[in-house]
Design goal:
Length: 609
Amino acid sequence: MVKRIFKTLGVLTFFGTSLISLYLINLFYMKPASIDHYLAKEVITDLLDSPEAMTYMGVFDGLNWLTNHNAMLSIPKSDDLKKDIQSARNRLNILNKYDNESLKSDQRITKKIAIFDTENQLNQLELFPYHDYPLNQVRGEHHNIISFMSDMHPVRNLSEAEDFIKRTDLAIEVYSGLYDWLQRQAASGIYAPKFVYAHIIEQLNELINYSHEEHPLYTQFIKKIKLLDLSDDEFNSLKNSIKNSIQKSVTPGFELLRDFMLETEKNANPHHGIWSQPNGDEFYKLRIRSYTTTDYSPEKIHQMGLSEVARISKRMKEILVSLGYDSNKTVGILMNELNEDPSMLYADTPDRKEIVVQDYMNMVNEATEGIKEYFHTMPRAPVIVKAVPEYSEQTAPGGYYQAPALDGSRPGVFFANLYDIKQTPKYSMKTLTFHEATPGHHHQIAHSLENEELTLYRRFGYRTSAFSEGWALYSEQLSLEAGLAPDPYDELGILQSEIFRAVRLVVDTGIHYKKWTREEAIDYMKAKTGMSDTECRVEIERYIVWPGQALSYKVGMIKMLELREKAIKALGKNFNIKDFHSAVLDYGNPPLFIVEQKVEEMIERALKN
């Protein structure tokens, strides 16, 4: 459970298996000469320890005959925590031994990032090893094998199909290891909130009670092997094997987890905030430091949120009144009415999802073309749009991004949640496109991973929500400024997205610091955003099981806008938006204090010229 599995490493770069092989030989058989070399070796070591990450990246599939990673899963072990603590301690000791005077400028930045990350990791491992909820309704471990096997495991030939079966045969071992971890968490007095139990028990029962023909692992596997050139005997053998694997490994694993939840449900936490867990206030401070890369206090963030909600509400009210809406009603009520307006909703037809996905794809293409003049370069990796899979759409967020494979075999994917028709009002679609695809997540991640000037560690070794989510939210405003949302309704969508993130500052700190209940947080979000009941419930429940992460969006955006304004004031007519975006994007996915440093350096260079 504490093993670092790089689930977000699958971003397209353009080097092949042979180059990876040569790099590995050089990495492990030459004397480490620099901090870059040391950290690259750490990245590769962690990567090779995770068969899931190796599959996710794609470029290692040509070495599967040697690694056999496509037939393996990471099995949680009882001594993982002890090993990870010792590994983090060793890493911190080594990093501190590198003399700043002997390091180049970029290497000093790398050292700062690595020490910051390692300190946070070590503090969590030593002080708060059981404060996470691995069984949760949003990104729970019980769904991970299904989503990983369905979306990531390649089935391009008979051998890879057989590896699919070998992996699902290991499900019982994965869930047995998770069961042992949950027992240790319970022994430390940490239990998930009551509503989490209700969700997980329901989800597990659904997974357990699937018929073979309905089971998502079965249906996805059959869909994959139907595309292969197999004999009838090979096809039938594989079909029987996946059924047997589900029956003997996957379902018993789900039953083991379900039984744990039923046995411990009486101990479920009656409170919702992390403050109610042992030493929960200190854990929340660490989460804030990790996710926002700042030392802001919960109170400061709460007040930032209240201020931003007021500012954005005022602008939304101005637009709504100009469009003829009742000025006596609150923004939340007016936006809720807009959500209910039939003209803003798609007809609930059998082909609705296909229609919405195509409309999103058109918006992606339009944004990609329209934003080019704001960047020196555009990413080479493509991005497509898909609907969120049915097995997770009821609890998944409104949209999310999945990076492409390193070898180009899988494009980046913007997943849109189309479960509830009211989750997709037409006025909100462009801003979600800007956030998840272009110029948001896809643009930033592909740009970073395609940057051959970055070291392996700076590409893969560290990432932070404050930067990636801050950039994605900044991208929404940038797109508005670029004229990609000329319709006032589209601007309302962008502002609703921004107020949604500002509300997160209020409700996340409200829940985890000010001891709000889930219901209080839902009511506040509903009143301020006008989002649907389903959206508000799903979002608030996400923040409860993922303390601090929701803070990163608005904190990151605010910092980037502050830095842009600083550059504009300093440079005046010499300010170049392309140069500013390069200063932000060209250095990987760094903490905000590094972004600030690089923007200040850009300003100094421009002033000298």
